[in-house]
Amino acid sequence: MAAPQGSKLKLLAFAGSLRKDSLNKKLIQAWASIAQKQGVEVTLIELNDYELPIYNGDIEEHAVPENVRKLQELCSEHDGFLIASPEYNGAVPALIKNTLDWISRPLENGDSGVSVLKGKVCGIAAASPGGLGGLRALLLLRDQLAKLSLWVAPSQFALSKAPDSFSNGELTNESAEKALANIVQEVRGFYE
Ligand SMILES: Cc1cc2nc3c(=O)[nH]c(=O)nc-3n(C[C@H](O)[C@H](O)[C@H](O)COP(=O)(O)O)c2cc1C
């Protein structure tokens, strides 16, 4: 895959949780600064700022929510993505699925929404208070993203017992930092 022309790699980063004290928000924040240290330009967003109804074809037919357009635009402006996802009942949270479903819908110009994702790269991680760290959700998220024609970095990271790895909101787990840095390297490698 050719490197993005003329500028730094630009990644859009978000967590799949709306919770104020979300572990995954802390994880994505740490991950964004790890990526920035590798020279990547990261746009970190909170999905709270892009609230969407559950996908409903009737809503879409009436008027596509403004936040769908904003998210599609953001996706089109970036070369790839970093996603930190909680695990809910062994699966990807509805928030992520719903966000991706809306993004995949046709753009204002009629092109498929998948075109703002297709052929791009994604790194995935999860954080959970549990012992598996959200690993089961990552396997499903990987599959979901591949179905949207994204290339998902081979390595992924599930942070188990996650509350123990943060102090004052900062990631204090060196091996977690290394694992996240390694995924960023794989993401960068996609364009090299
Ligand atoms: C509906 C629901 C289902 C959950 N299922 C799982 C699960 O399958 N595996 C797991 O590790 N944690 C599970 N949890 C616990 C979440 O990992 C925990 O709430 C986590 O803090 C959520 O991520 P956040 O901190 O980023 O909001 C579940 C939580 C909820 C609310």
Architecture overview:
This protein is 38% helix and 17% strand. It is α/β, with parallel strands linked by helices and 192 residues long. The protein has one domain (10-189): Flavodoxin domain (Rossmann fold). The strands form two sheets. Strands 1, 2, 3, 4, 5 and 6 form a six-stranded parallel beta sheet that branches. The chain has a two-stranded antiparallel ribbon with strand order 7-8. Helix 1 packs across helix 6. The longest helix has 16 residues, at 174-189.
Which ions and ligands are bound to the chains?
flavin mononucleotide
Return the domain count: 1
Which CATH-level-2 architecture?
3-Layer(aba) Sandwich
Specify Rg, calculated over alpha carbons.
16 Å
Class per helix and strand makeup: alpha/beta
**Into which percentage range does the β-strand content fall?**
15-25%
Number of helices: 6
Q: So what's the overall shape?
A: globular
| Average predicted confidence as pLDDT | 96
Order of helices and strands: EHEHHEHEHEEEEH
CATH topology category name: Rossmann fold
What would a concise description of this structure say?
The chain is an alpha/beta fold.
Give the arrangement of secondary structure elements.
Layout: E1 10-15, H1 23-37, E2 41-44, H2 57-62, H3 66-77, E3 80-85, H4 94-103, E4 121-127, H5 135-147, E5 151-152, E6 157-159, E7 166-167, E8 170-171, H6 174-189
Parallel strand pairs: 1-2, 1-3, 3-4, 4-5, 4-6
Antiparallel strand pairs: 7-8
Helix pairs in contact: 1-6
This protein binds flavin mononucleotide.
